[in-house]
Amino acid sequence: MCLQEEGVYPIDQHYSPLLGGFSLVFSDGRAAFLTATTKAYDPNSVQGIWAPGIDDATCSAVNHKYRLLSFGRQNAETNVFSTDDQTGALVCVFKLKLSSRDFPGCPGSVRSLVWTPGT
Predict the structure, then answer these.
(1) How far is it, in rounded angstroms, from Cα 113 to Cα 35?
(2) In this predicted model, what pLDDT tens digit does every residue of 78-109 receive, in sequence order?
(3) What is the pTM of this model?
(4) Is 80 helix (H, G, I), strand (E, B) or coil?
């Protein structure tokens, strides 16, 4: 992950102690997971992993129990990712999409995501 563009900044972030990192949404629509190899988050130990196929992210949420990262998008969809234990990459496990039958037209951007507590 390399973030050197001027004017790009985080607009949404959530920390997960169980995942050991942050879900981030940037002002240019990209989404990422930021983690470190040390608990101190030394700049030399920080690693960022881009969420593949996301260029219109609007918000994020983290499910601690199932170790999932979700990113809401401008097209009214939500992509849910897990981290691959061997490579560390973000892998899309499923997508949530409003059906055109129930929500005709364009329902707009996802503005907020929250995971409900599981039993």
Answers:
(1) 21
(2) 999 998 888 889 999 999 988 778 888 778 89
(3) 0.86
(4) strand
pLDDT tens digits, one per residue of 14-54: 988 888 889 999 999 999 999 877 776 677 778 889 999 99
DSSP code at position 6 = T
| CATH number, domain with residue 21 | 2.40.10
End-to-end CA distance of the chain: 35
* Residue 83 belongs to domain spanning: 10-96
Contact of 23 with 62, CB cutoff 8 Å: yes
Looking up tokens 């969809």 gives 77
Q: Is residue 76 part of a domain?
A: yes
Residue carrying structure tokens 């055109």: 100
Structure tokens at 2: 């390399």
